[in-house]
C-alpha cells in the first residue's frame, strides 16, 4: 500500500484522538472539508486522504453528498407493529422515531400517475389506471442535520381516494392516512412482503448511500374488513440505520 503523506497521517491521528477521547462523539458530523483544511492549515486533498484513512479504521463513515460522520450514527430501530398504533399525532415510522427520542421529518410529493404492471398487481387494478401516489422521504434529525432513513411510496386505489379526498393533501392529519381510513369505518389489515436489492440511483441520492449499497425493500398492502385493497406502499429502507423488528405474541 502506498505510504500516506505525513500531513494526512498527522491530521488523521489528531482527529482519531478526538474520537477516541470522546471530544468527537459517535453520530457527530465533522466540519466540511474546506473548514477542516482551514482549521488545520492544510489543503483539501490532505483532508480527503486523512478522512479516507479514518474510514479505513472504521472511525468515521463517508456519506456521499453529506460529509463524514463519526462512527455509526444512532440510527433507529423500528417496530413493524407501530403501523397498528397511534400515540397522539404519531403513527408508524414517525411514532418509532419519536419513541426513540428523536425528531422525525417527512418530505412529501403527491402526484397522479398511471399504474405500472407492478403497481397494478399490488392494487388489483388494470395497468394504466390513474392512481394517487404519495412519495415520502422520511428520517430523523441528528445534531441538527437530517438523516434520511427510508423512502415510502404509497399508491391508493381509486375508490379510497374518491371516498377520502384528504389523501391527496400533504397533511392527512394526526395519525396519517391509516387513521383517516379507520375514522371512515375501515377495519384495517396489512400484509408485508420483505426482500432486499441494490439501491437505485434515486434511492442512493435520497438516502445518502454509496454505489452498490443495498436497501431493505418492504411492500405493504392494506385491506379492509371486506378484503378490499385500499393501498399499497413500497418502503426502501436503510437497513444499516433502521432495522425493522417483527414481534409475535
TrEMBL record:
Q: Which GO terms describe its molecular function?
A: DNA binding; DNA-binding transcription factor activity
A Gene Ontology annotation in the biological process aspect, one of them, is: negative regulation of DNA-templated transcription
Q: Which UniProt keywords apply?
A: DNA-binding, Transcription, Transcription regulation
Q: Which PROSITE patterns match?
A: HTH_GNTR
Stored InterPro entries:
Bact_HTH_transcr_reg, Chorismate_lyase_/UTRA_dom_sf, Tscrpt_reg_HTH_GntR, UTRA, WH-like_DNA-bd_sf, WH_DNA-bd_sf
What positions does the domain HTH gntR-type occupy?
5-73
Q: Does the keyword Transcription regulation apply?
A: yes
Say if the entry is tagged with keyword Transit peptide: no
Against CDD domains, the record matches this protein to: WHTH_GntR
- A Pfam family of this chain: UTRA
What PANTHER family does the record tag this protein with? GNTR-FAMILY TRANSCRIPTIONAL REGULATOR (PTHR44846:SF17), MANNOSYL-D-GLYCERATE TRANSPORT/METABOLISM SYSTEM REPRESSOR MNGR-RELATED (PTHR44846)
Q: What is this protein called?
A: Transcriptional regulator, GntR family
Question: Which species is this record about?
Answer: Pseudofrankia inefficax (strain DSM 45817 / CECT 9037 / DDB 130130 / EuI1c) (Frankia inefficax)
